[in-house]
Amino acid sequence: MAASTEGDAEGWCAAERPGAGGLALLGLAPSAPSCPHGPALLFVKTSQGKEEGRRFYACSACRDRRDCNFFQWEDEKVSEARLAAREEYNRNHQPSFTHRQNVERYENFVLLPLSKRRFCQECQQLLLPSEWEKHSDHQFLCDISTAQLKSPSQLLYPLENKKTNAQYLFADRSCQFLLDLIIDLGFRQVLCVGTPRYSQFYTEDEFCHYNMFNHYFFGGEASRETCRKFLYQDNGERVIMVTDPPFGGLVGALASSFKKLMSMWKKTEKEGHNNQEMPVFWIFPYFFESRILDYFPSFSMMDYQVDYDNHALYKYGKTGRRQSPVRIFTNLTPSMIVLPVEEGYRFCAICQRYVSSGNQHCEICNSCTSKDGRRWKHCVLCKKCVKPSWFHCNNCNCCALQNHTCEKTDAGCFVCGKAGHKRSTCPSLSCTRTAYQGDEKQRKKTLKRVRMGICKRSAMKHAIFSRKKAKNKKKKT
After folding, report:
1. Helix (H, G, I), strand (E, B) or coil at 66
2. pTM exceeds cut of 0.70
């Protein structure tokens, strides 16, 4: 089953935990207002060491106001007229066709002979003969086969707006690996979370329009029930959730939605589910490991490098400008995930999992510690393994790149240079400001005198020029 996500946003550039500086995600409030992408998320602007700022609601799916300009203060009173206008706006900004209409169109489309099956590349839409004239100046594909209809990714162009709908497609290598792995593990049903624009190709039993950032089903309770029934098939025994969310999306928002989907599965009638989780493959960069494990302690990260066809950097091995940082996070037992030996992966008997060829077991850490495929080295002072290009810095008291900027260098006050406070709270700031204000007054006086001098000289030149002009006129007469 495919569950679409509305807006593959890279997400807000924000902290997700209250207390950190920046924007903190507080989550989904029970009475949250809605935008075209469903219920908005609640945020608060925070400043380190200070009280929380004013809370506000913003779109869950788009971080750029040009894509969705929804904004509302939490304590703001919204008039009835504005609420009505907002509801009208939300209705007008839904897809051109409902899922039901898309299903009916698809049923009519497959009945057409091959010569009359057209797909508009500009509108990314299956066309019925009655719609050809409207799209006559567009580019379209003809003779759409049944095989093409069953592989929508080959028809649809990946969207490229990184702030709303950036879509990257797995390379054939990764697709085949995931498919083989899922089959070998005995799963027969896959809940794919994050398959936007597929509503043209799947029935209402196979597809739900869903926002993974706020657990919102656009089809309402009927759509939610469809998802629940899918998870309940065979008592949920052979279902796995696979998700490849936008990497800039807020991990906290994603984790909240995934937990709710997992909770739907847990409510199946099968005995013994009480202490189990729905099997999950969460595909995400390795540098989010600590965040994901904060929300899902039962998860572990596999060494397998996931690569993409249409991404310049996220490539496997030496084919790209750098190795792909994308990994598979799962709550399945690591030893069950067999990685391809022909690609250099091997089984570590101590860790009881498959690791990359460069990931050597550290006897001190008692773990295969590498995250990026290279062999990491152990730092005695840090008491952990670090990247091979890092060195221990005595100023920072941790390992970092050799040419990094030390934290302690920036720790002092910009005004007086002393540690323990910043420029804004410097005791010397008032004196400095007074002195600066005195200097500023003197500078303004000097500037005024200079300007007056320039004006006087200009006036004198103008007067001289005028007199000369008058004399010349007299001579001519």
Report:
1. coil
2. yes
